[in-house]
Amino acid sequence: MAPxxxxxxxxxxxxxxxxxxxxxxRPPSVIETEVLILGGGMTGVSAAHSLYFESNITDFLxxxxxxxxxxxxxxxxxxxxxxEFGANWIQGLGQNPIWALAQKYGVKNRxxxxxxxxxxxxxxWEGEDGPLREAxxxxxxxxxPQAMADAGRRKEMGLPDLSMKAGLKMNGxxxxxxxxxxxxxxxxxxxxxxxxxxxxxxxTIEAYNESFIESGNSTNNIVIDxxxxxxxxxxxxxxxxxxxxHVLYNQVVENITWSKTGVVAHTTSGLTIRAKRAxxxxxxxxxxxxxxxxxxxxxxxxxxxxxxxxxxxxMKIFARFDKKFWNDTEFLLYAxxxxxxxxPVWQPLDTPGFYEGSGILFATVTGDQAYHAExxxxxxxxxxxxxxxxxxFGKDRVxxxxxxxxxRWTRDPLFRGTFTNWGAGVTVRQQEDxxxxxxxxxxxxATLWFSGEHTSRKYFGxxxxxxxxxxxxxxxxxxCILRNCITSExxxxxxxxxxxxxxSSGRKLYRRRRMWS
Length: 517
Ligand SMILES: Cc1cc2nc3c(=O)[nH]c(=O)nc-3n(C[C@H](O)[C@H](O)[C@H](O)COP(=O)(O)OP(=O)(O)OC[C@H]3O[C@@H](n4cnc5c(N)ncnc54)[C@H](O)[C@@H]3O)c2cc1C
Ligand SMILES: *[C@@H]1O[C@H](CO)[C@@H](O)[C@H](O)[C@H]1NC(C)=O
Ligand SMILES: *[C@@H]1O[C@H](CO)[C@@H](O)[C@H](O)[C@H]1NC(C)=O
Ligand SMILES: *[C@@H]1O[C@H](CO)[C@@H](O)[C@H](O)[C@H]1NC(C)=O
Ligand SMILES: *[C@@H]1O[C@H](CO)[C@@H](O)[C@H](O)[C@H]1NC(C)=O
Ligand SMILES: *[C@@H]1O[C@H](CO)[C@@H](O)[C@H](O)[C@H]1NC(C)=O
Ligand SMILES: *[C@@H]1O[C@H](CO)[C@@H](O)[C@H](O)[C@H]1NC(C)=O
Fold this sequence. Notes:
This protein is of the alpha/beta class. It has helices spanning 8-12, 42-55, 97-104, 131-156, 164-169, 178-192, 201-214, 231-238, 284-288, 300-308, 367-374, 378-393, 428-435, 463-483, 489-499; strands spanning 18-19, 30-38, 60-63, 75-78, 81-84, 89-91, 109-111, 117-121, 124-125, 220-223, 247-248, 253-259, 262-267, 272-280, 293-295, 310-312, 314-320, 331-335, 345-348, 360-366, 403-405, 419-421, 448-450. It comes from Sphaerosporella brunnea.
C-alpha cells in the first residue's frame, strides 16, 4: 500500500473544488464532485468510462481503498509466474464484452478444456473408466440438460422456485456416494461456490443459459498473462483522459450520508467527499457486513434484499513444487471418501500450453470448506493440501511445496467473499431491490445508486456482469443529471444495448415485467 496522502499529486489536477487545509499545505479535507463512484473495480471503471464517453459527463471521481483499480481482479507472483487470486476465466466468449477487451489489449488467455481431466479417489487415479467419471458423465449428459428444460418450464408457468438440490432430485439426481458428491460439486459448486441446497434452481440455470448458451459461444478461456487479468480493467480505465484526476486511491470509505440533496462520504483518513449523486459499487459482502455505515440506515426493503442474496466464497490455493508429479492434464477431480467438497478440484498449471516447467498447481475450495481454510494458518492449510495430494499420487511422489500462497477473501473487509450466488428463496423483486436507488421520493430525485456484479440479473458473479451493470447505472445517472431522468434518443441506444444483458433495472422508474416470482 502506498502511504496515506499519496493521492496528493493527483489532487492537484482535480477539477473538483477543494476546500479546507489545502491552502496551508496539509491534505485537503473536503472535496466536491458531481458524481462520486464508490469503488474502482470493474463496475466503477465501467461506470466512469460510460459517463465520460457516452454522456460527456466529466465531473466524476472514483474513490478506491486500494492502491490500484481492478477490485476482485488481482494477480500475484509465485516462482516468477503470475497467478490470479480472483477472476481467472473469460466465461462464454460469444458476446462477452470482456472477451472483446482482452483481445483489444492483448491480454494473454487460452482455451480451458474442462474435459481434459483425470479422476482420483483416496486410492489414487481411478483409471480411464471408473465410478467418478461415470457420475460426471451422467450428471452432465443426462441430469443437467433435463434440469435445464425443467427450470425453463417452471419459469414460463410462473411456478415458484426450488432449491437446486430439489430441482436436481426431481430430475433423477440423488447423490449418495463420494463419487456422486464430487461429480455434483464439479458441475455446480465449482461454478456457483455454494452447494445445490443453498442455490436457486431457476436462478442457477437462467444464469448458466445466459453466459454459456445465449452468449453464442460457451467456450471458457483462462487468462495466463504475466501482467494479470487486471489489465483488462486498467487499460479500459486508461482510455479516460487524465485518469489520475478522476481517482482517489488509498481512501477507505467508512460512512456514507445520503439525502435528497446529495451524498457525503467520509474516509478513514479524514477526507470528506460531497457529491450531488453517488454510485455505490462495493461488494454485496461489504454491504452485508456493515464495513461501511449508511446514515440514515438504508430502507428496510433494501436491507432485506442485501441480507437475502448470497455472497459466496471461491478460494484458490496455489503451490509450487520443484518439479511436476502429475500428467499432462488440465484438471484433476478428487472424490474424498467422507467429506463433500474437500479439495475436489485441482488445476495443474505446469501442463502443455500453460506454465510449462513451473511446477505450479492449484486447488479450489468453496463454501464451508473455504471458510474453514481461511481460518487455518498457512502451515495447517499446507499440511491438508499436501495430505490430499499424497492420497492422490502416493506418499513418495509428493514432496513439500517450495512456495504456497492463497488469498483470504472472506476475511478481507474490502470484499467479504468472492462473488454472489442466487440463493434458494431469493425473489426477483429482492434482486431488483439490491440495485434500486435511494435518496428521493422519485427516482428522478434519487441521489444514491447501487451497482455491481451482484446487481446483474443475468450475469451475477461474473466480470461481464460487473461491466454491464456499471454501464447501465451510469446511463441512468446521466439521464437524471442531463434530463431529469427522462431518456433521450441518444441514451435509449446505450440503454438498449445494456438492457439486452441486464433487462431489469431500477425500481420505480424502470420497472419491468417480472418473469418469475
Ligand atoms: C476468486 C474469484 C474468482 C472469480 N472468477 C471469475 C471468473 O473466472 N470469471 C468471471 O467473469 N468472474 C469471476 N469472478 C467475479 C469477478 O471478479 C467479479 O464479478 C467482479 O470483479 C466484480 O467487480 P465489481 O466492480 O462489481 O466489484 P469489486 O471488484 O469488488 O469492486 C469494488 C471496489 O470497491 C473497493 N472498496 C470496497 N470497500 C471499500 C471502502 N470501504 N472504501 C473504498 N473502496 C472500497 C474495493 O477495493 C474494490 O476495488 C471471480 C471473483 C473472485 C473473487
Ligand atoms: C462535452 O461537454 C463540453 C462542455 O462540458 C462541450 O464543450 C463539448 O462540446 C461536449 N461534447 C460533446 C461531444 O457533446
Ligand atoms: C520473470 O518473468 C518476467 C515476465 O514474464 C520476465 O520478463 C523475467 O525475465 C522473469 N525473471 C526471471 C528472473 O526469470
Ligand atoms: C435454458 O436453456 C434451455 C436450452 O436452450 C431451455 O430449454 C431452458 O428453458 C432454459 N432454462 C431457463 C431457466 O432459462
Ligand atoms: C468460440 O470462440 C472461440 C474463439 O474465437 C473459437 O475458437 C471457437 O471455435 C468458438 N466456438 C464455437 C462453438 O463457436
Ligand atoms: C463518519 O465518519 C466521520 C469521520 O470518521 C465522523 O466524523 C462522523 O461522525 C461519521 N458519521 C457518521 C454518521 O457515522
Ligand atoms: C500418468 O501416465 C503414466 C504413464 O502413461 C501412467 O502410468 C499413470 O498411470 C498416469 N497417471 C495418471 C494419474 O494419469
